[in-house]
Design goal:
This protein has 65 residues and is of the alpha+beta class. Helix content is 15%, strand content 28%.
Length: 65
Amino acid sequence: MFQNPGETQAHAFAKIRWFKFRKMWKLYWMRASGKWELYAPEAYYFDLEKALKAIAKDKHGCFFG
């Protein structure tokens, strides 16, 4: 990537899953080991917008360090 500045790469760091029977979203983050872990006790959202805002805020430092 550093040799070709026009090249972009994508890396998974967050996952949001919809649980139809509970009608809510769950937010996960990827550990260095490559395993997904529930973000925090408050990782349950009834609104997708709030889950996306939680990723941007990253108050636990899991997504952006």
